[in-house]
Every structure is written in C-alpha cells, then in structure tokens.
Amino acid sequence: MMLLSKVLNKPSLRRACSSLCSPFTSNIKDQGSSIKGVSMDGAEPRRLSHSANVSRVQQIPLGGSSKILGTDMSRENGGKNASWGQYISRASTASDMTQRVVVSPEVPWVLQARRYSSPCEEMLVKNHQNKLLQRIPEYVKIVEVGPRDGLQNEKDIVPTDVKIQLIKMLAASGLPVVEATSFVSPKWVPQLADAKFVMEAIQDLQGAKFPVLTPNVKGFEAAIAAGAKEVAIFASASESFSKSNINCSIQESLVRYREVALAAGKLSLPVRGCAHFLFIYIAVVLANKTNHLKWLILENMHRYISCVVGCPVEGAIAPSQVAYVAKELCSMGCYEISLGDTIGVGTPGTVIPMLEAVIKVVPIEKLAVHFHDTYGQALANILISLQMGISTVDSSIAGLGGCPYAKGASGNVATEDVVYMLNGLGVKTNVDIQKLLVAGDFISKHLRRPSGSKAATALMKTLAHASKL
Ligand SMILES: CC(C)(COP(=O)([O-])OP(=O)([O-])OC[C@H]1O[C@@H](n2cnc3c(N)ncnc32)[C@H](O)[C@@H]1OP(=O)([O-])[O-])[C@@H](O)C(=O)NCCC(=O)NCCSC(=O)C[C@@](C)(O)CC(=O)[O-]
C-alpha cells in the first residue's frame, strides 16, 4: 500500500490518475497545481489552469496512439458534437495523456477526465433528452459493504487493525456509508467476532455513516453499547435461506425484527420522522462503561432482504414473495430496504419484474440494490435498477464478499467498477476512485489475492505502466 501511495503521489501520476478517474462533471481535484501539456507543434509544455471551465478532452489519432485536444462543449455546437462518438473508444495510456496534450489557444481549459464518453452521456448531462438514460439519478449513494459482507466469508481471520484501517481508507475516499461489521453470533460468523473493537476504534471517525448488522435484540444491544449509531437487520425472501442463515423462518424473523424495533423504542425518547418519513430518529439513553449516561441518536434502520431473485436451495423466488417481505419490513418504520441478489443469479430479465413488484408496495426512494457478481451480471442489473429510479447501490471494495450460508455466493459487485460506470454516466458519487484503488490494493494484498474489480485491475495496470516512464 505504501508503495502504491507513493506511486500515486508522484506528481506525474497524480495527473495521470486524475485524468483517468475523475468524474465527468468534476474538475481535477488537485487544485493546487497545474497540468503540463505540449502544444500541437510539439513546442515546450505549457501550464494549464485547473480552474478553467472546460468540459472534456478530445482525442485525435496520432501515429497509432492518441493525442488530446481540449474543447469547450459550451461553445462547440451547443455541446453536441456528432463526431464525439468516433474517438471515444480510442484509449490512450496515462502517459499519452500527460505527454501529448494539445492546447486549444482560444479557450481556457483543463485536462478534465480520461473517460470514454459518448453522445448519450452528453445528452444526459446537458439536455436530459436521452430516453434510455433519462431516469438515471444525478447522484447515487454508494453503500460500501466490504468490511462486513466482504470480509465475513474469509476463512483466515483478518486482524482487527487491518479491518479498522480498511474502514478508515474507505471513509476517506468519500463513500457516504461504510457498513463496518456485524453483531451476529461469533459461532456463526467467527470472522466478525471483533465487532465491538472495530466499532470502538472508529467512534470518532467523521465523514461517513457506519451501520452494523444485527440479527436480534442481543446483537442490537451489543451494537449500541459499542457505539453504533445505525443498524441493519436482514430478512430473507426464501424460507430455506432464512433457516440456514439465521436459524428461523421468515415469519419468526419478522417477529424478531419487530422485537429489535421495540427494544430500540423502549430505550428511546419519542420517535421522530422527517418530512418524508424516510428516517427514523430514535434517541437512545444508554449507560456507558463508566456509568455516565450518554445520548445516542439512532438515525437509521436499514433492512436487507436476501435471495430476491434466487435461492441456493429453492431456486427462483417469486417477485410477489419479495414484495411481501419488503412491505412487512417497511411497515416496521423503515428507512431503507436493500434488495439482495445474494447468490448473484439475477439478470435484468429477472431483476426488472422483481423491482416492479416491490416498487408497487414500497416507495422507490426507500429502495437500494445489492448485487453479487457470480455470473457477471451485477453492473447490468445496477444499470437497469438506476433506469427504474433507484439511487442507492451496495458494493464491496475489490469485489470482496460472499455469504457463508449461501452456497455459490461469490463476491459483491466491486465498488471500483460501480464508481467507474457511474463516472462514465456522469452520475455523481463524491467518491475519489484513486483513494478506492489504494484501499482495494491494501485489502487485496492483505488477503494475498488479486482484486475482483476489473476497473481497478485495468487502472492499476495503466498506472504501473505510467510509473515506468
Ligand atoms: C441469528 C443467530 C444468532 C441465531 O442463532 P441461534 O443459534 O439460533 O441462536 P441462539 O439464540 O440459540 O444463540 C446461540 C448462541 O449465540 C449467541 N448469540 C445469539 N445472538 C447473538 C448475537 N447477536 N451476538 C452474539 N452472540 C449471539 C447466544 O448467546 C448463544 O450463545 P451460547 O449460549 O451458545 O454461548 C445466528 O443464526 C446468527 O448469528 N446468524 C448470522 C448469520 C450471518 O451473519 N450471515 C451473514 C449475513 S446475511 C448476508 O450476508 C446477506 C446480506 C445481508 O449481505 C444480503 C445479501 O447478500 O443478499
């Protein structure tokens, strides 16, 4: 990790990486410096301002490679350039980006992004006219589940300080929510037996929310005592999976979760909902170790439903069954319901009817999607979910993940892949993909396996290539 950080901090690579990764609508983050470019005639590099209002770079063929021409979309053909699509697939390396920059003398500009843009993206951002992309939200909240869902399946126990470091790195990347751990039975999930210590270590961490998984009142109370301010409960749309995962039927789990909600209520002052009833605020008075009373605000209760498309035992799950469980959980006073394709068997063909059934009974703004990538369908499923109006997506750094009680479940969709796709769509996430790369590299190296993220793997290769130049 140190090595990667050093490499990423080399000025030339920071420039290259910024250009590789920054989202469509944002400028390069390193505002303190400027970018070197060379003119079309190969003259001396000149300094380029970061503050200029230039929307994209244009690549033109140059001896089998590419070079970059800054253009101003606001001036050029009203932002619609019919030829834009013809050079978008011409990927230049990071070094190409820094060495073959061509400056348009008329307009101030910045080297804004190395993205593979398209007229559709332009239309989305500029005109919102593209029917396919019209419903995609401008901002998507990414819920990072790596430290919990990602690590829970690991056989070798990951040291607590590695988990804490990972959480800190993920929070520092701008992710708004990082699911930190689980307060489940250590007999069932030994990997997360250190939940208390993890939570205590991140008490003062700012900038993100750190929900934890709680399967029952015992877990809920332990989570609150350890300082959790947000909890997630998890039911299943499949009877068999409910039994194998939490040792009870769906109905019993719903009773159990009502008990959790009640326990929260008993400890609480009045429950307050915001204008749209999206949040439950529960003020909890708890005695801490030194018997001093302290106030905690439980801002959110987040719910998962597993096996929303298929179950390892039962096979296909009916959309109506998912809708039933979603409605029940919603009626407990829900903030968010995450629909989990636990074993990653869904395709848009099965995800669409499932979402249609759930959207009929639960407001869409309360829904999140949680895809595992077992069959490589996760990004397609996310895209279709966004097109249907969902704006919260769960993902896991480096594609870590799997459920110990769901045979065949592989890793979650990788956070780096989701951010890369959303950047390409012009959707804001506020996540710095460079920092994600460092976090993914850190945990992959610790687990001694390559990252499960295709985007991270490709970007790292490009960076490695650039670092040799
Ligand atoms: C729910 C139970 C506890 C029932 O397990 P059980 O054996 O039926 O419960 P029990 O009440 O008989 O308790 C057994 C022992 O566990 C203890 N215990 C009981 N509860 C707790 C607790 N909260 N924290 C710590 N200890 C606990 C309890 O005190 C007792 O200890 P003993 O007396 O034997 O020493 C168990 O089945 C369990 O922990 N299951 C969790 C399994 C799990 O974490 N699965 C992975 C998460 S779900 C998932 O990954 C899917 C998701 C969410 O990501 C979405 C998707 O991908 O689709």
From TrEMBL:
Known catalytic reactions: (3S)-3-hydroxy-3-methylglutaryl-CoA = acetoacetate + acetyl-CoA
Domain of life: Eukaryota
Gene Ontology molecular function, alphabetical: hydroxymethylglutaryl-CoA lyase activity; metal ion binding
Pfam families listed in its UniProt record: HMGL-like
GO biological process: ketone body biosynthetic process; L-leucine catabolic process
EC top class named in words: lyase
Keywords for this protein: Lyase, Metal-binding
Residue stretches spanning the membrane: none
Pyruvate carboxyltransferase domain segment(s): 140-437
Pathway involvement of the protein, from the record: Metabolic intermediate metabolism; (S)-3-hydroxy-3-methylglutaryl-CoA degradation; acetoacetate from (S)-3-hydroxy-3-methylglutaryl-CoA: step 1/1
Catalytic activity, EC: 4.1.3.4
Annotated family: Belongs to the HMG-CoA lyase family.
Protein name from the UniProt record: hydroxymethylglutaryl-CoA lyase
Species name: Carnegiea gigantea
Upper taxonomic lineage: Eukaryota, Viridiplantae, Streptophyta, Embryophyta, Tracheophyta
